[in-house]
Amino acid sequence: MKTLPDISKDFSQWYQEVIYDAELVDQAPVRGCFVIRPYGWALWEQMHDYMDQRIKVTGHQNASFPLFIPQSFIAKEAQHIAGFAPELAVVTHAGGKQLDEPLVIRPTSETIIHSMFARWIKSWRDLPLKINQWANVVRWEMRPRAFLRTTEFHWQEGHTAHETLQEAQEEVQLMLNEYVLFIQERLAIPVIVGEKSAHERFAGAQRTYTVEGIMPDGRALQMTTSHLLSQSFAHAFDIKFQGRDGAVAYPYLTSWGCTTRLIGALIMTHGDQKGLVIPPAIAPIQVVVVPIYKNNDEYQVVANELDFIKESLGEWRVHWDMDNQKTPGAKFYHWELRGVPVRLEFGARDAKAKQVVLVDRLTGAKHQVPFDQLTERVRALTQEIQQGLFARAQQRVQALMLSGDKLVDFGPKIEEQGGAYVTGWCQSPECEQALGKYKATTRCLLETHTKSTCFHCGKPSPCDVLVAKSY
């Protein structure tokens, strides 16, 4: 059986190999694109289904908008076109002839959706308008890595319009909080939340709020974002409505989204030397049952109890590994590689003793459990694994969150060793650019104020900032 690269010495290569060995992805014939295989897609479906429910509960409706966007739409908002120009894929020919106007393959949908908002919003009574779309987008990626940075990826993108700035700001915060709860409670990944700098914010937004994760190699990963677009796109697309006072007004807009990048975050945060470790709350398979028998007589003894086990596991997503072409050892390796939280082993001797063996993927511990305690013990074990994964990740993040005063001191450490540094910043672009020498960026502004001076120039710092290398 294959051994993965040492996760502690070559984290990058470990990641590259585990995503293929666990059959999450495969190479596509187009550079920067990947085929998400059934197991990987099942993981995304778990994320999709949970977030789709939360999006609807919070008052949003799903819709679908075109993949192709007129190039002139992208150009209407100056910062938007400037920010996305290097990443655009453009169609110039179709139907055997050159198009009158090139079409951009959707990099994000603000422009096409706002063109429709201009048709739909006429009065304050039409607000708030709260739309979500599940879609694929294309951004021409120079250094692709499956799930983390790909030319084509899948996501949800929410777009809303509001009567007042306060309502729009509340919407931004509402969805930011939903993402934090989802990532921490379902994915068991601890996060840092803050506002992006002017240079790092979404192109065309007034403010961008980010949910950042710190991966085991000390790099930061932007996991989700929520944007206060304010009125720039409303003016660009002439979205106007008659206000309560009869005057013409422009709505305040927001957008927010999460992507298949979350799969990458999950893999990196929880994986170990055996492969993936998937939190039970999000696992496509929560319990895998591996019956063990050497001959037909033993199989009959085992088979007599399978219905009872099936009934006892009714509240979980269960896979029955009945493949008689593989040894039990090969099956154990396969399911450990795929990160299934709980494995249930069950042989003829267990059947006669009215018990099973539960194996915890997080710790590897084995538990002999009587039949009449199976449901209760699996329930407790999945909760223990979920909580244990978050605690382990949180402990790791705390060890990687460091304090720094001067860039000349902590910059080389970021470049060579990784780690995320809390430091001070005067918020000038010149000082922010100085981070590039060490391949680092500002990740987000923090609400804390423990540093009084800027990491680069020494001028007063209004708040702390998180600095790190990123994916």
Give a summary of the structure in a few sentences.
About 35% of the residues lie in helices and about 25% in strands. The chain has about 475 residues and is an alpha+beta fold. The mean pLDDT is about 95.
Outline the structure in words.
- The protein is an alpha+beta fold.
- It folds into 3 domains: 260 residues, Bira Bifunctional Protein, Domain 2 (BirA Bifunctional Protein, domain 2); 95 residues, Rossmann fold (3-Layer(aba) Sandwich), CATH 3.40.50.800; 68 residues, Translation Initiation Factor IF3, CATH 3.30.110.
- Helix content is 35%, strand content 27%.
- It is built from 15 helices and 23 strands.
- Strands 3-7-8-14-11-10-9 form a 7-stranded mixed sheet, sandwiched between helices.
- A hairpin with a 5-residue loop joins strand 12 and strand 13.
- Helix 2 crosses helix 6.
- It starts with 10 loop residues before the first helix and ends with a strand.
Number of domains: 3
Based on the structure given, which CATH architecture of the largest domain is correct? 2-Layer Sandwich
CATH homologous superfamily identity of the largest domain:
Bira Bifunctional Protein, Domain 2
Measured between the Cα atoms of the first and last residue, the distance is 31 Å
Mean pLDDT: 96
Task: Tell me the name of the CATH class of the largest domain.
Answer: Alpha Beta
Radius of gyration: 25 Å
- Lateral arrangement of strands in the main beta sheet: 3-7-8-14-11-10-9
Number of helices: 15
Assign an overall shape. Answer: globular
How many distinct beta strands? 23
* Helix share bin: 25-40%
Pairing-aware structural class of the strands and helices? alpha+beta
> In percent, how much strand structure appears in the residues?
25-35%
Q: How many strands, which pairing sense, and closed or not: the largest β-sheet?
A: 7 strands, mixed
Low-confidence stretches: none
CATH topology of the largest domain: BirA Bifunctional Protein, domain 2
